[in-house]
């Protein structure tokens, strides 16, 4: 699994400029030319960010040597050594905060995702993410979600059309909205309808939506509704055929994931790893 490279160099440059500014004033106290350091985990977690960390260090000194003790997506324990680094002493301390920050943030997302995935064990339901991400960090946060075992949903508005409540409030209804999107979009494009009622869910399928996002439906209702939705025929231009729409539950309490997984939905979408995860504490020590 590789970290995304899109705009990564620009991001790293902006991170370092933010922290170093016009120069690291404290580095005047450093007398060593070269130094070695190691990272240690202060709590259990799932690691994420190796490629990114290496690129940050080498942005400051291309001769840095980094030896990771584990790969992205692997679990670690509190007290475990994560990384050994050798290189410029001044560059080591300049890169310390930026690299730790991004690794702790991404590892926090990966760790929370892994905990949620564990709750779905024994079901066929996949856990997917959302577009609730930190602006500028979407690709990295979604990469961390994958490192934790999750599956990515839309990366952006150009991946698939999703008719949410605000779109429907500004449209002429589900049938007309789906027709308009089909006319304007490339033929491989998918259309998802967010349904807040059983009627909206059924209407979305009948008029040819590729996916139905069942928002804030209780598990007991979904157990009854999912089989009904799977049997509904699609009716496009008077032609009927059985549907193969993807059924997705959202607005789910993370504590109830297993119960939702047992309803038969294909996907459960959640923003929890991005919006509710804690950073995984790590430290760097020069020796």
Task: Spell out the key features of this protein.
39% helix, elongated, 287 residues, alpha/beta, four-stranded antiparallel beta sheet
Topology:
Layout: H1 8-20, E1 34-41, E2 45-46, H2 50-60, E3 65-68, E4 75-76, E5 81-88, H3 89-119, E6 126-128, H4 138-147, E7 161-163, H5 165-169, H6 174-184, E8 191-195, H7 198-206, E9 211-215, H8 219-231, E10 233-236, E11 239-242, E12 246-250, H9 257-261, E13 267-269, H10 272-275, E14 282-286
Parallel strand pairs: 6-13, 7-8, 8-9, 9-12, 12-13
Antiparallel strand pairs: 1-5, 1-14, 2-4, 3-5, 10-11
Helix pairs in contact: 1-2, 1-3, 2-3, 3-4
What do you see in this structure?
This protein is an alpha/beta fold. The chain has 10 helices and 14 strands. The chain has helices at residues 8-20, 50-60, 89-119, 138-147, 165-169, 174-184, 198-206, 219-231, 257-261, 272-275, and strands at residues 34-41, 45-46, 65-68, 75-76, 81-88, 126-128, 161-163, 191-195, 211-215, 233-236, 239-242, 246-250, 267-269, 282-286. A 6-stranded parallel sheet has the order 6-13-12-9-8-7. Strands 3-5-1-14 form a 4-stranded antiparallel sheet, with helices on one face. Helix 1 crosses helix 3 (89-119) and helix 2 (50-60) runs antiparallel to helix 3. The longest helix is centred in the middle third of the chain and has 31 residues, at 89-119.
């Amino acid at each position: 699994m590789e970290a995304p490279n899109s705009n990564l160099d620009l991001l790293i440059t902006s991170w370092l400029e933010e922290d170093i500014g016009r120069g690291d004033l404290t580095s005047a106290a450093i007398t060593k030319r070269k130094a070695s350091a190691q990272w240690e985990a202060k709590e259990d977690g799932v690691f994420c960010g190796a490629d990114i960390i290496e690129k940050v260090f080498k942005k400051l000194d291309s001769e840095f040597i980094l030896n990771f003790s584990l790969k992205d997506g692997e679990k670690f324990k509190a007290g475990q050594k994560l990384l050994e680094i050798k290189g410029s002493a001044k560059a080591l301390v300049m890169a310390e905060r930026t690299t730790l920050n991004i690794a702790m943030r991404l590892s926090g997302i990966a760790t929370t995702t892994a905990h949620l995935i564990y709750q779905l064990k024994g079901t066929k339901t996949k856990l997917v993410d959302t577009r609730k991400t930190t602006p500028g960090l979407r690709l990295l946060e979604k990469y961390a979600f994958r490192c934790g075992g999750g599956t990515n949903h839309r990366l952006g508005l150009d991946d698939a059309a999703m008719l949410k409540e605000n779109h429907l409030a500004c449209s002429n209804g589900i049938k007309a909205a789906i027709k308009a999107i089909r006319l304007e979009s490339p033929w491989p494009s998918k259309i998802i309808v967010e349904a807040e009622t059983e009627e909206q869910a059924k209407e979305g399928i009948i008029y040819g939506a590729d996916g139905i996002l069942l928002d804030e439906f209780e598990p007991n209702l979904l157990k009854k509704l999912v089989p009904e939705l799977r049997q509904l025929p699609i009716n496009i231009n008077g032609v009927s055929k059985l549907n193969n729409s993807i059924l997705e539950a959202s607005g789910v309490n993370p504590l109830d994931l297993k119960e939702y997984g047992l309803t038969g939905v294909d996907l459960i979408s959640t923003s929890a790893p991005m919006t509710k995860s804690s950073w995984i504490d790590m430290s760097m020590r020069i020796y």
